[in-house]
Each structure stands twice: as structure tokens, then as C-alpha cells.
Amino acid sequence: MTQNSAVAFSPFTPAGSNRLTPDVPQRLLMLMGYWIGVVQSVAIGIAAVVERGSDLVEAAPLMAPFMVLAWFCRRALSVGVFADETALRLHAGRQPLMIEYDRVEAFTVRPHREKSRVLWVDLRDGRRYPTPAFVGTGVRAGMVALTDAEMATLLAELTRRAALPQPAAKL
User: HEC profile for the chain?
Assistant: First the structure.
């Protein structure tokens, strides 16, 4: 399940980390929205300055919708669980949360909001954080749907990276 193992141009993955969850199902649509927003904003800005001799402040009302489109699409493309050698990064569309592995007590699957099987990170100090990964189908903003097998693989990979004892196999 680990993607982006080779360092490549990946503007939606935190620098130096690997995506451990699948991409959002609407990835192509979100990529198109992002690049349309970026290109149109730049084109309108250039046209305002070069062709009309105005400044970017005058062009801002025309650029704003495209910049907002790019911003929302980038947030959607950045949702997931990411990891590097020392930390886990959780990105659910808000500010990413970075958790050092040495602070992790356990990874568990339990309910959160309307989802019954969400991956959580339990810290040694008693705090708990839900990840954007859940078992199920459907689309929910800020979350990534996984199959049972994908969740088991994700749990095993995170447990290995955090050097935690492997959970007992279910019989």
C-alpha cells in the first residue's frame, strides 16, 4: 500500500514522507480543479498586468474564485495518512498533525462520528487522535475509505514503524 516510495514530484504529500493510504477516489477531478484554478489565476493576473496595465489588486476579484477552487482541491488531494522515518502525519483537510512514533502507545480501530471503524492513534500521555482512515465505502470530506485488507496492512505498517508489539492475530 505504500506509495510514493521513490522521491518524485508529489505536491500533495508532505516533504520526505510516504502516503500510506490510497488517494481520494475523485483524484482526477480534484487534480483538474487544482490545475485549472492555478492556471486561470496566473493567466488572469498576467492579463491584468500586461494587457490592461492594471495591477493585481484590480484583478483580484476575477482571480479569487479560481484561487479558492485550487485551494479546496489541494486540501482534498492532501487527505490521508503519511509517514517518514520518525513521525506519522495525519491530514484530514485541516492543519496536518505530526506525531512522533516514540509518543505512540497503540493504534486502534474504533467508532468516530458516524463511522464505526476509524483508525485512531493513542498516545502515551492519554491523548487520542482519529486518523482520516476508516473501513467502509462512500465518500466523506476529510476521510479515506479503506477495505478490511487495506486497514490491516495500514495497521501492520504503522505498528512496524512505531516499533510497537504486533497485535495478536484474530482466530
Answer: CCECCCCCCCCCCCCCCEECCCCCCCHHHHHHHHHHHHHHHHHHHHHHHHHCCCCHHHHHHHHHHHHHHHHHHHHHHCCEEEECCCEEEEECCCCCEEEEHHHEEEEEEEEECCEEEEEEEEECCCCEEEEEEEECCCCCCCCEEECHHHHHHHHHHHHHHCCCCCCCCCC
What is the CATH topology of the domain spanning 79-161? Answer: PH-domain like (2.30.29)
Cα separation, 69 vs 131, in Å, equals 25
> What is the spatial distance between Cα 18 and Cα 75, in angstroms, rounded to a whole number?
17
User: What is the tens place of the pLDDT at every residue in 100-140?
Assistant: 999 999 999 998 877 788 999 999 999 999 999 999 887 67
Q: Which residues pair with 6 in a beta bridge?
A: none
pTM comes to: 0.76
Indicate the angle between helix axes 27-46 and 56-77, nearest 10 degrees.
Answer: 170
> What residues does each domain of the chain span?
27-77, 79-161
Among 150, 127, 108, residue whose Cα is nearest residue 2: 150
